[in-house]
Design a protein that fits this description.
heterotrimer, A alpha+beta (160), B alpha/beta (598), C alpha+beta (352), B: 598 residues, Glutaredoxin, Rossmann fold, 5 domains, five-stranded mixed β-sheet, four-stranded mixed β-sheet, 24 helices, 19 strands, 39% helix, C: 352 residues, alpha+beta, N-terminal domain of TfIIb, elongated
Chain lengths: 160, 598, 352
Amino acid sequence: MSTACEELVDPKQIKLDEIINKHRYDNGPLIPILQGAQEVYGYLPAHVIKHISKAIRIPVARIYGVVTFYAQFRLTPVGRNLINICLGTACHVRGGAKVVETIEKELKIKDGATTEDGRFTLEVVACIGACGLAPVISINNEVHGRLSPDKIAGILAKYE
Amino acid sequence: MAENQRILVCAGTGCASSGALPIIDILNDEIKRQGLEETVTVVGTGCQGFCEKGPTLVIEPQQILYTRVTGEDVAEIVSQELVKGERVERLLLVDQATQKPVSSMADIRFFSKQHRIVLHNCGVIDPKKIEDYTARDGYKGIEKALKGMSPEEVMEEVKKSGLRGRGGAGFPTGVKWGFCRSTPSDKKYIICNADEGDPGAFMDRSVLEGDPHSVIEGMLIGAYAIGADEGYVYCRAEYPLAIKNLGIAIKQAKEAGYLGDNILGSGFNFHLKIFEGAGAFVCGEETALMASIEGKRGMPRVRPPFPAVSGLWGKPTNINNVETWSNIPHILRNGADWYSQFGTEKSKGTKIFALTGKVNNTGLVEVPMGTTLREIIFDIGDGIQGGKKFKAVQIGGPSGGCLPEDMLDLAVDYDTLTQAGAMVGSGGLVIMDETTCMVDIARYFLNFSKKESCGKCTPCREGTTRMYEILDRITKGEGKEEDLDTLENLAITIKETSLCGLGQFAPSPILATLKYFRHEYLAHIHDHKCPAHNCTALLSYSIDTEKCKMCSLCAKNCPTNCISGDKKTNTPYVIDVENCIKCGTCMDKCKFGAVSRA
Amino acid sequence: MEWLTLTIDGREVSVPKGTTVLDACRMNNIPIPTLCHAPELTSAGACRLCVVQIEGMRNLPPSCVTQVAQGMKVETQNPKVRNARKTILELLVANHPLDCMTCQKMGDCSLAEYAYDYGVTGTVYQGEKRCLPIDDGNPFILRDPNKCILCGKCIKACTEIQGKSILDFSFRGFDTQVGPAFNLPYNESDCDFCGSCVSVCPVGALTEKQMAGKGRPWEVSKVQTTCPFCGVGCNFDLNVKDGKVIGVTSNPEVPVNGKALCVKGRFGMDMIYSDNRITTPLIRKNGELVPAEWDEALDLVATKLGEIKKTYGPNSIAALSSAHCTNEENYLMQKFMRAVIGTNNVDHCART
């Protein structure tokens, strides 16, 4: 009996409720809850947003507005490997745009998209703060610096 | 060697990205292996500033700097340097002017020309240890304030020091505190703005990573002067190491009795929380930042009321950025008179700049206000990479402007830069050489501003896109001369009618480049040429069959595989113009000068 | 009350302390264009069309959120101010469909009015234009997000007046939109179709679907009346063309409700011309409802009620009255039941 009940409860849902309960009575709980929820689900599915809305009594439209405002939040799942291409000023001046173009051609996707096989998600970001190594990209938070277009294929090949 | 030695390994984000973290473990193992663990300690520090040459490490007390260190070098460093006291020459920095290796930090212009107040502990202490901070007079400033000074006296001291806000416009910090202090309220907040959104600036991140207690102490002093009992550090989520180190520091400060209730038995209470920003440049603007903490879209609101009157949750709130807060403990410890001896008449103290772009020594530098751009770029920065010609320096990020060569002797402070059409801003200094196109730079910044516009007010939301589109057309050779008038009119309207600083300063890169580099715009428009050979739409690459030796090096290195040819069948090498992304790799790789650019 | 004196375009005027520059101008019949301002909503200062020049102030402050100060010198029409407004209008028009001849809002569109006033050509900026799907899935409100100028008034009407918060901004910068959560169409959201959003929209982004193609503002006469649906007494304007009611618009001047209405009041007036509408009393004869005269019907009811009361007693009769009636009519109903019939069996459809 008890095992049957446990199977019905989604472990992610339990974690989500823990996060909500942790922040529920804070001033301004919404963004920390959304950040926590995204950590649990990898993105913010509509049903999660609706659940949060009911739990902390903030209208869904307002939460959707917040989710779409900040770059951190995503409404769709991310690929197996997340590529962040830095286009901070230092990277731009040292040829970052060519790195972007090379990766886009190599993976046949544009900024913000995921490859059809779900292997890579591509995101152009403002600055990852490794300006001394410009131009840089980070794949799954692993930084590759001092890049040039001819190095790209070799780096991408390392990620399955 | 009998003397106790310390090896300071930079573990800031820059060096960590270059592979610094494994070096610490390898060093510890090697020291044990060679039996030196009694006399040598390895410390993982915050940013030492010299990101370009990372991973870097410093041997103390001799102050020897090693650069671009890898795991394989460790054994040699230990046996040569630590055991024999001899340098490992190949890992020393080479001075670009003399082409000779220099070992002592005192002889390296990158360090010797700096004056470190805020970065005093950065790269020297272990940021995860509060005792490292207190050993270097940490928390002496708040002790002094709580034990012998009234809040008014603290505020007066900060006023007298002449410290101005390091986040942008340079408003006098003490005066700003006074506004919040004088608003009657049962509750006040202070906030540390660590939403360093300027692409190309990383001083706030480095301070939080390398010396988080200095920010906490600065905020404690500010809270005491203002009468606030709660504070937030609003930090970008993109800075995980800063958040981690600050979190550790807050925990330690609580345990040591520097945070919480009845601090040091004085009756003064202060609680500090970290708020992780969710990624929006506009949240660097005070009212947008507060909206974000309140869980709303980070859209700025009209001022007045100013945050000092009605801020976070309607309560009086004072916001300063990381670098500003980090200056405060030094002012309290050493006095306003000491502090105000640095800098110029109206801009006191030092300023940290993130020196990046086409300069030899990229990294983090702290200089007294009033230092000239030439000193920063050519002495500390050691000149332009690859012996190329300096063209411009972009100061202050997307809100700042580009200054040309004849402004290099400008003594950098708030007022001179504003007059010249740039701004201190966050302190990003991006160096550009003859291969940087100034129209493209303006286009780059407008692309940034348009992406980061919150969309609330019309001029910024619609105008930044239109300015970007005009610049984009110009870089593609599709511009018309009247576009420049349209741009100028639009720039001025956006500057004068936008709701917040993001919009008001978004046109600055255009206005500055139009002022100093108008000829580059005209070359794109009239001649359809990019003088810097940077704008790809105006470039084409071709292979000269006369000079080509059919070595196939270009084809092998082409990232888009658009060069074809075959020596066996005597098929000449040609570039498929359709697929060429004009990256120039083929030209760089060709040993015979057969690839030409037009 | 403290009064402050300021100079607007060289004219000295006095206004109460706390007045905005915009209100000071309007009190003195000095025209200022506004798109995001509405007196019944909080001010955002977002459209920036109401900018003026004020001596000693940096840049051009928006008059809607700038409070008057003693001795202030304001210029509302100088070339710099007019140029800034014209540029802002050019920017808005550059991202707005130019199908004015078929737009329902034509003749009542603030953007068109100001564009005309400021000589906007619509040709200065060429580039990207929004291209979003039109929300046509409900019978009441037509939402064309491509015409939206993002003034945000609909969001505030929904939140501040109705307390529903169905609408909000989403995305940011040039991609900013207004709509229900997940950009769902209205009929898939929790919207009640009160139409408050429509009543504040300054352009053709939100229009009354019933009136589409039925008449231009200058062909329509507005007849103020009281809503017949319930006893609250909301007033609105019937829009009448050629003697026929084509729809309802709210009237900000009316005392009871201002611009606020419910779905019935704003969108329920098609009942006037409904084939199902009962226009005479009906009496069931031989199982069929047959039209009757009022006298005949009333006599019948009186007789029957009298018989029931006599046979079964007053408490065998109950009355249920309607929210459709006025308060006075409902009062009379209960009075009749208590005093004439002699029972307390009185109820009302809106009570439960």
